[in-house]
Give the backbone structure.
Amino acid sequence: MEHPVVKACCAASRNDGLAGTHSEPSPSAPPSAKQCSSSPIEGLVKLSGGEFVMGTDSRDGFASDGEGPERLVRVDPFYISPHAVTNAQFGRFVEETGYVTEAERFGWSYVFHLFVSEETKREVVSVPQATPWWYIVNGAYWAKPEGQDSDIRDRMDHPVVHVSWHDAEAYCSWSGQRLPTEAEWEYAARGGLERKTYPWGDLLKPDGEHRCNIWQGKFPVKNNASDGYEGTAPVDAYKPNGYGLYNMAGNVWEWCADWFTPAYHRATPNVNPRFDQPTGKRSMRGGSYLCHRSYCNRYRVAARSSNTPDSSTGNSGFRVAYSE
């Protein structure tokens, strides 16, 4: 099944919303020079690297995203976090450095319409025409993910959201880590399996078991949450893949180090590929709790998406990597 070319349901861009707002970001605060006291490899999983088949030739995706052609790629050994950065981890970074995210500096971020309270809906600035399920909510940011009347006290083990690529880079600067490249991310997501659709195999629900947090129901109006979650899930929800990594499919989109290009597989080398030519958008991997086969079938390991590096949404986060 080849899907029509559509804008990703999960990639509402900051540029889409600026026309409907009167706010401009305050000057960016530089990342603090203070470094995290923990070792950059503490808690990370070491992967041996090597050759793997990257990308896909399947018609079950989006050719316009540049998911293929399949090719043999080699990556050097590296470390990667077993799960996305949590609210607790990001909160420590903010507490120690005083960092202010781009969502806070812009004064707004994108919140999925079903999570906006009736009171907050009266204060919604605008709704992008291309993705009307995203509401531009003043005051939404990582610690108040649905607006000023929300908090994360019961979600400290959930992935931090409303973080831009720049915010993720600032966290990495503090922690002494970095974002994974697309190649490293896909190598890690495959968990040692070759040419499989998902991190666990080719069946979305083996033996009827939910293995990831994606949309269940009719997008974007009804999520029956049969996988256990309407929004984000704890970062270690579901079974890990063969490398002991959690939620490499669904939950939140994860920023990667590369600039995004649909020509990725033809424009990068086969050894440690990374696309470093600025294109205006950074790569994201993994899909999110909003992905559904009927619209955004991007929770497959070879799937790709992108957004501008200053964009933030309620379903975008990141995990970290490190090389010795």
Observations:
- Residues 1-8 have pLDDT under 50 and may be disordered.
